[in-house]
Amino acid sequence: xxxxxxxFSKLVAGEKQFQxxxxxxxxxxxxxxxxxxxxxxxxxxxxAMAEVRTPSHFLGxxxxxxxxxxxxxxxxxxxxDGQQRLTxxxxxxxxxxxxxxxxxxxxxxxxxxxxxxxxxxxxxxxxNDHYRLLPTQADRGAFIACVAGSPRAGGGDNIGHAYRxxxxxxxxxxxxxGDTWARVVVTVLGGLLSIVxxxxxxxxxxxxxxKSINNTGVQLQQSDLLRNHLFMLLPRQGxxxxxxxxxxxxxxxxxxxxxxxxxxxxxLRGVSKPKVSEIYEAQQQRLKPVEGDxxxxxxxxxxxxxxxxxxxxxxxxxxxxxxALREVLSRLADWGNQTYYPVALQVLDLVDAGRLDAxxxxxxxxxxxxxxVRRLICQISPSxxxxxxxxxxKELEKSHLPVPEAIRHYLSGRRRYWPTDAExxxxxxxxxxxxxxxxxxxxxxxxxxxxxxxxxEPVDFAKAALTVEHVLPQHxxxxxxxxxxxxxxxxxxxxxxRDLLVHTLGNLTLTGENSKLSNHPFQRKQQIxxxxxxxxxxxxxxxxxxxxxxxxxxxxxxxxxxxxLWPGPEDGAPGADDEWPGWAELRAAxxxxxxxxxxxxxxxxxxxxxxxVAVGTFLAAKGVHGDYRVLNADGRVSAAYxxxxxxPRELLEAEGVGFDxxxxxxxxxxxxxxxxxxxxxxxxxxxxxxxxPSPAADTTDRATRFGELLSTNQAPxxxxxxxxxxxxxxxxxxxxxxxxxxxxxxxCFPLLDVGTSPRSRTLRPLGxxxxxxxxxxxxxxxxxxxxxDDAALRRELLLRFNRIxxxxxxxxxxxxxxxxxxxxxxxxxxxxxxxLEWFVHTTALHAGERDAG
Length: 853
Description:
alpha/beta, three-stranded antiparallel beta sheet, about 55% helix, globular
């Protein structure tokens, strides 16, 4: 075998083709891997644009074996290992080419064609030989659609997801980087990503090479490498240093936090954007000056121990001695985000050194808390938080202001976007808070708002099992719509008004009576809330009714409390941009939509906290990418839409969207606001996994409630057939069982446990909702779990369901949670059982293959 370090440009140069063998798995990179690659790329782009000497970044290896020369003369290579990163780079180039074609002027139009011919195709060859990469058969259609610039590029499969990921990050990067940015990205992807090309010799057993590469032992962690390096440099003092310093530190932090400690140490020392994967190398370089001096090395380890003690106070605030400082550290720990750690450690270091008193430290960290909370309420993307806090220690060291003022000044800076009081109040009124951040962070905001009432007998939130409740229900009964009809605007339906109000903060509270409240009329909810220990609930119970007016009044009251709890930025602090951030979210949503889907002005308005008319006005004026996907609520093209070349209907039909005789797009391809939110990575509580065992009594109670809701809301035939299908599920295998949701609408989930090792997983083929009356197929859940992380298997599941009359799942939703009516169970229980039987058999088959491998 021969190994050589090359750039991507050199790897693909010449008339050649990389073929992925059939024994390779299909493309499976998720957002985690894509984001990691893109973080590396953007760092290199930033260095190149700042004219900093930019070394190449090692991406990994690609193992190739020579194949047969094609009839057309193309040199073929089998991709033994590395197909995931190779495919990802190819897809990134297709997205970059299309981005340049749509956004670049004439001066860089030729760059798009250069990308196409230099990286993606063999220009003068036809058929399969035309493509530089030929993935496995299951991925080939999606990949070729991207290379060919087909309307179906960016579908619901894994390759389509990667294409849309890159379209999204390229659009955001262009907004921040300016006109030259795309050129630099081309340079980085083609010339600054280092790949080790390993080529096998003719006659080598390629399959054996593949198996040996993919059955290696456990890789050492960065902390393991650093420990081994340090103690090789301590031949005389090593044992004593290990027993007295290193071992206690390692035991108190644990392996994961030990690695975090070494990364934070680099941040606090001013190392620019250290990568977790390069901690060992960076620390090794930092310690070079003291190699050979065991006393100096011991002092360095002692410094790490002191830093670890401060980190433990951040991780476990009960270790902090000062009560007020302990309280603010506890609040930040409850927030549950590590991004603020560099600033928290810097503040504690100043306290320990006697340079900052505890009161000033509390004020400093309260600004940090406010910055995080206000951004969440206003739904500012958290993607920049890590950069903001990593850069903070270096900037704060330069400041001559008192520490609290220095932190407030830094966080108030341009492009850090700390929402003002006015922006906070607007967001509380309009933004769908129920989709903001993580579920525990939403709970945290409501908890802090309740605590602000300073009740004489405050609720013990540590013991109370409280969940977020919608006062106006997520699935209102008809009488709710009758009330909303009195407050609608001209051209607005009660459903439209419900969509704009239901997830806003003014309509949300905390309760331990979620299942009792359900979607009852407000009068019944009043009776239950009036007996609550929470002041905010008793306040709601005192309202005369519950519609738009009451929700907005409560929103304003809560925003006043929020302003007092979480102080804002400096007066006159710059915003993120001149443009309202909601429009950036609109553009991101349209870029994230799979080919073959459409949405409505109302769904976009609900997502971003706007109004359908304002959304239509913005789209008409701005010429946003994908604007043809936004239709009227009935699926018709808006009369105000003025197409440049082809009509929205023509564009959507080219992607596979069907239209009826009345010109309405098929509803199965429609994305509602919740689905748009999922595509943007928002955590929706409705799809939290049911994977932790529940107490038997609790499960029995929820099973009983599910049965009651099913019999009350569904026809007897549907009830009986669905029950028979669930019995069939439980009888298939001991690993097949049922669990039930904990929300107001008690749902049911058939679950399949796979394996008993730490790598075991739980899969669910369906979610059943008795009040809403739908069965949900959770592709979004399955795409993260083997074997259904293979898009081909998810597609097969979709096709099997679609063979049943009454089921119409759009293929574009292979990463979402499409639904079909529960009444399908009444007429086709045997067909549904057959699909579930296939699901169990397929999972067992692939689990056996994995264990054997």
